[in-house]
């Protein structure tokens, strides 16, 4: 295909993405160096916003919380996704039904799923989870005021929402494991666990890498589910970075656009750093495939 | 296309058609608010079709006035539109709509606390001329003078008062009777009653207060200080957060905590209502707008066990009650493009005598003598409460100071900071704002 | 081994395989009882929040949120749905949500299909670079893009319109859309292109007449995903809408923390929003699965 044809076909999409993604991004970077409110031009303040953001303990706490939740959620998604995918791999007739049911939590809007979750654990509003916990252990868990239970709640909700996705992709990967490979391992006397650990998982490393990548990308940006699940986020240190940006730059009449933009820029840098290994991998393959 | 594709497309088509078709079926018609009514709303309509956007949060006390406005003033080509929104959302949108030269909303609900700040920034249209013009048609002179004062700043009226809210204490009359307890008039008496209820094994945390860490808790702190005759700033504008009154207030609040749910800093007023509905708490103090809900059987099976009283004082020596007086009203934003006369008529009709009468007992209208012990289950408590409240200190920086000190206040209450440290930090933060 | 590893892609993985209709290992297979039970419990747990919400919404208000919870002995009622429909502008919000979803899907496909095709046929460093950029853009914190959009739409006077929201979502989801479509296009051998063009078709004509019909399932998959993303969107809608173009998720969020009837209405709205989406999940399962798996396996 000639270059001219390429650009003719690619132009509309390129323009839309350029105009609506790149230009706003440039604006954000511009704002991060200014003190500015909506609708009024800003005044240049150099690196002040970045200094404010980096010395604000609230930002540090938000970043820490977001990264920890991301790492834990990704790990759980990989393990649980793999286990469930293996299980579903064994089914034949009931597979469509199970897949359909599993997809429900993924296609639900994140906010709606989180609201439903919050009703389950809020015993002031009749949630049953604490009843069961009370029956078993005799204590009450403060899901909304204490940091660790709240973090567990958020992780549980995120895993619940993203498990179908992880599971489906790993399931696809499992289909690509040659049958002969599995049988060879069994013939050699490997136990099922050994087969999984030493044969199957290495074979689908690429797929697992993909799940890790998407999971990190998505959980780092969590926002929707914190609204119903963590109304006290700032007070207990369970704010995510996006929630912090929202409260700084938009909510409650706050209009610190410059500071909010600086935090956005810092987050972008953070995401780029975390994505570097994957990006390098893709470039390497692209070179190989030439 | 495969059958699946056809099926999916058909489903989507049906959904779209269905939704569009059902749009006409009485949607958004606001039928059924028992406390709203239809009143005269005589304005000169503009030539073309117009939508008037009203910004007002949902609450059992505000809805009657909003709904009256929507149903009475929507006619011919003019539609009055009110989207449901929570209080936090209203705060966000108020700032957003007042930020630029054009805004989304044409009538906004405001309350005494923010009037000084908004007036100073010239975000609201002064209403004195319009008031005089339409006073006779809508009986506006019967609106309580002191409430009009509360919505004025620098001699000009910036909002048309619709109702007042004051703290009222709601308690389980049946529990109190069963244990032979008197209605508490001070914080120590509240704690004694709570002890007795706990000892009888009836409830673990008999007191419930709205102490939401991102909003209501600062109102409670202010009310506690008011009871002791002080506020965050004094008349002269100096910050008074490192005073003995502030210390006593903080300590009084912390003394209540063992009798309240450990998650009390997540309680907004609806959650406190829920504690009462479920029989988890026996005493609560909230704004009067929340009281009517407690009497409705549709909300709780305990509805007929609640009784109301004026809020207690912090201590025997305290001069005033633990109380905050909030006046809610309607304002015209400076950047609306619609005719101010039309907007004012809409606002006036919503606070007319018939509308105000209909809103009782859901609300406490701003008109003189509307609420009595007879027509409202908490009427007597409300009137006593107003009489026992400290006259408010008006200052344009109070709202910003409150936002700044709130996180520190929460740290003191949860024990992350000592009282002394907290007071010092709050003083410093507030002084940075007061300038 | 990497995403484009030869060993992985020698045997193309189709949705038939994932659905269990492909090659199966030899040997007799016992019905997996233990696995079945565990999966059954998992399915129940995955559905539990949704089931609980449905129950809460169909109870009378004074028992819906009662603590201790009331499990039986009440009369189920649809009053919450009736209130939702009659006392709020829910029908408007629903129409807004659907309009935004449909418009953004159509536009996303119209501009995404040629772009994805071009990317799949133009083997060059630039193509890989653009893909990486697409990946990075998908990873961006959305506020970095949406806050300036808020400013721009207010300045242009298109703030609070379904059009603005739809276009914003098209742009935000473009990286994923062309990424997905490109993978589908990559499956179609280039020889087909050449053959069609020898017969005298222009590139664009061939695209229209040959490729797109062949790509039917792929396009449908991408369309369903874009539709779903637009349907589920909260953050962008929160910032870019106000009264006229409010969507259902934004409405639901405003009902939280309000009076009990309003809380039930939030639940009712959630369920009404969710039912079409669940239907899509079941009916269009194949396409969702294909999209998710193809994205991974064919790199």
Please outline the major beta sheet of chain B.
Answer: 9 strands, mixed
Beta-strand portion of chain A reads under 5%
- In quaternary terms, these chains amount to heterotrimer
User: Under CATH, the topology of the largest domain in chain A is which?
Assistant: MetI-like fold
CATH architecture of the largest domain in chain A: Orthogonal Bundle
Give me the secondary-structure category of chain A.
mainly alpha
CATH architecture of the largest domain in chain B: 3-Layer(aba) Sandwich
CATH-defined superfamily of the largest domain in chain A: MetI-like
Uncertain stretches of 5 or more adjacent residues of chain B:
20-29
Give the arrangement of secondary structure elements:
The complex is a heterotrimer of chains A (290), B (435) and C (299).
Chain A: H1 3-32, E1 34-35, E2 43-44, H2 48-55, H3 57-89, H4 95-107, H5 110-121, H6 129-137, H7 147-175, H8 179-187, H9 192-203, H10 205-220, H11 226-229, H12 233-236, H13 241-249, H14 257-288
Antiparallel strand pairs in A: 1-2
Chain B: H1 3-22, E1 50-55, H2 63-73, E2 78-82, H3 87-99, E3 107-111, H4 115-120, H5 128-134, H6 145-150, E4 152-153, E5 156-157, E6 160-172, H7 173-178, H8 187-199, E7 207-208, H9 216-227, H10 244-256, H11 269-277, E8 283-287, H12 291-294, E9 306-309, E10 325-331, H13 340-350, H14 353-359, E11 364-365, H15 379-388, H16 398-414, H17 419-434
Parallel strand pairs in B: 1-2, 1-3, 7-8
Antiparallel strand pairs in B: 3-10, 4-5, 6-8, 6-9, 6-10, 6-11
Helix pairs in contact in B: 2-13, 16-17
Chain C: H1 6-9, H2 15-18, H3 33-57, H4 61-64, H5 79-87, H6 90-121, H7 125-139, H8 143-156, H9 162-187, H10 190-198, H11 203-214, H12 216-232, H13 235-240, H14 248-255, H15 260-283, H16 285-297
Helix pairs in contact in C: 3-15, 5-15, 6-9, 6-12, 7-9, 9-12, 12-16, 14-15
């Amino acid at each position: 295909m000639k270059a001219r044809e390429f650009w003719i076909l690619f132009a509309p999409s390129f323009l839309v993405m350029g105009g609506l993604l790149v230009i706003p991004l440039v604006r954000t970077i511009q704002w991060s160096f200014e003190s500015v409110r909506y609708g009024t031009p800003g005044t240049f303040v150099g690196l002040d916003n970045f200094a404010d953001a980096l010395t604000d303990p609230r930002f540090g706490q938000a970043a820490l919380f977001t990264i920890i939740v991301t790492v834990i959620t990704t790990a759980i998604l990989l393990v649980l996704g793999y286990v469930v995918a293996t299980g579903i791999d064994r089914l034949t007739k009931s597979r469509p039904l199970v897949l359909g049911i599993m997809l429900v939590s993924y296609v639900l809007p994140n906010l709606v799923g989180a609201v439903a979750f919050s009703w389950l654990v809020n015993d002031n509003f009749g949630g049953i989870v604490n009843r069961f916990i009370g029956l078993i252990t005799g204590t009450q868990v403060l899901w909304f005021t204490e940091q660790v239970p709240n973090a567990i709640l958020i992780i549980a909700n995120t895993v619940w929402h993203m498990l179908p996705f992880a599971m489906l992709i790993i399931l696809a990967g499992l289909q690509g494991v040659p049958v002969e490979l599995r049988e060879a391992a069994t013939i050699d006397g490997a136990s099922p666990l050994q087969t999984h650990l030493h044969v199957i998982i290495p074979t689908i490393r690429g797929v697992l890498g993909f799940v890790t990548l998407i999971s990190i990308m998505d959980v780092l940006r969590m926002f929707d589910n914190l609204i119903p699940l963590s109304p006290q986020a700032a007070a207990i240190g369970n704010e995510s970075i996006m929630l912090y940006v929202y409260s700084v730059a938009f909510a409650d009449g706050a209009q610190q656009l410059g500071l909010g933009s600086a935090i956005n820029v810092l987050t972008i840098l953070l995401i780029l750093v975390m994505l570097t290994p994957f990006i390098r991998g893709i470039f390497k393959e692209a070179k190989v495939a030439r | 296309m495969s059958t699946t594709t056809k099926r999916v497309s058909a489903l989507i088509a049906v959904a779209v058609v269905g939704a569009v078709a059902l749009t006409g079926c009485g949607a958004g018609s606001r039928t059924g608010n028992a406390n709203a009514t239809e009143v005269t709303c005589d304005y000169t309509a503009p030539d073309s079709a117009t939508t008037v956007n009203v910004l007002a949060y949902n609450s059992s006390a505000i809805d009657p006035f909003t709904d009256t406005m929507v149903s009475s003033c929507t006619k011919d080509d003019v539609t009055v539109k009110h989207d449901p929104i929570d209080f936090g959302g209203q705060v966000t949108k108020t700032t957003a709509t007042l930020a630029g030269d054009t805004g989304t909303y044409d009538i906004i609900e405001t309350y005494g606390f923010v009037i000084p700040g908004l007036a100073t920034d010239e975000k609201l249209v002064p209403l004195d001329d319009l008031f005089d013009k339409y006073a006779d048609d809508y009986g506006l002179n019967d609106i309580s003078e002191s409430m009009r004062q509360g919505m004025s700043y620098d001699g000009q009226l910036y909002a048309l008062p619709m109702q007042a809210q004051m703290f009222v204490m709601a308690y389980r009359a049946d529990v109190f009777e069963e244990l032979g307890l008197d209605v508490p008039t001070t914080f120590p008496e509240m704690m004694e009653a709570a002890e007795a209820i706990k000892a009888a094994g009836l409830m673990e945390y008999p007191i419930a207060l709205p102490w939401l860490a991102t909003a209501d808790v600062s109102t409670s702190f202010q009310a506690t200080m008011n009871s002791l005759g002080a506020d965050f700033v004094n008349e002269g504008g100096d910050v008074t957060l490192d005073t003995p009154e502030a210390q006593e207030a903080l300590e009084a609040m912390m003394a209540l905590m063992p009798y309240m749910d450990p998650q009390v800093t997540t309680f907004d007023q609806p959650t406190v209502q829920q504690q009462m509905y479920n029989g988890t708490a026996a005493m609560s103090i909230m704004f009067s707008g929340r009281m009517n809900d407690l009497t409705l059987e549709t909300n709780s099976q305990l509805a007929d066990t609640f009784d109301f009283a004026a809020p207690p004082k912090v201590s025997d020596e305290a001069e005033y009650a633990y109380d905050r007086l909030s006046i809610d009203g309607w304002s015209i934003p400076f950047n609306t493009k619609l005719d101010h006369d039309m907007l004012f008529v809409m606002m006036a009709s919503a606070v007319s005598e018939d509308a105000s009468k209909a809103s009782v007992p859901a609300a406490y209208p701003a008109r003189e003598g509307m609420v009595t012990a007879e027509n409202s289950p908490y009427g007597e408590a409300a009137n006593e409460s107003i009489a026992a409240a400290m006259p408010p200190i008006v200052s344009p920086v109070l709202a910003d100071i409150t936002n700044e000190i709130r996180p520190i206040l929460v740290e003191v209450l949860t024990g992350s900071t000592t009282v002394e440290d907290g007071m010092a930090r709050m003083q410093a933060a507030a002084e940075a704002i007061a300038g | 081994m990497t995403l484009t590893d030869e060993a992985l892609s020698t045997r193309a993985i189709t949705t038939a395989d994932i659905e269990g209709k492909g090659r199966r290992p030899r040997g007799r297979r016992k019905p997996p009882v233990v696995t079945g039970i565990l999966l059954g419990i998992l399915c129940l747990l995955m559905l539990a929040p949704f089931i609980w919400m449905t129950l809460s919404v169909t109870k009378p208000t004074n028992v819906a949120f009662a603590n201790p919870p009331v499990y039986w002995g009440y009369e189920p009622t649809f009053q919450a749905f009736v209130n939702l429909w009659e006392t709020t502008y829910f029908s408007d919000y629903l129409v807004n949500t659907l309009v935004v979803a449909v418009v953004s899907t159509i536009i996303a496909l119209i501009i995404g299909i040629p772009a994805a095709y071009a990317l799949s046929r133009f083997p060059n460093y630039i193509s890989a670079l653009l893909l990486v950029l697409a990946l990075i853009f998908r990873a961006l914190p959305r506020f970095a893009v949406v806050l300036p959009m808020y400013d721009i739409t207010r300045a242009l006077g298109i703030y609070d319109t379904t059009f603005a929201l739809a276009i914003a979502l098209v742009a935000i989801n473009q990286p994923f859309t062309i990424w997905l479509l490109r993978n589908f296009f990559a499956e179609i051998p280039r020889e087909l292109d050449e053959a069609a063009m020898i017969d005298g078709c222009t590139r664009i004509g061939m695209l229209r007449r040959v490729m797109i019909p062949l790509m039917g399932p792929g396009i449908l998959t991408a369309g369903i995903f874009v539709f779903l993303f637009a349907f589920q969107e909260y953050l962008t809608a929160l910032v870019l809408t106000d009264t006229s173009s409010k969507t259902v998720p934004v409405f639901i969020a405003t009902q939280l923390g309000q009076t009990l009837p309003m809380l039930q209405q939030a639940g009712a709205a959630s369920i009404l929003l969710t039912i079409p989406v669940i239907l899509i999940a079941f009916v269009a399962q194949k396409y969702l699965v294909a999209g998710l798996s193809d994205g991974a396996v064919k790199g």
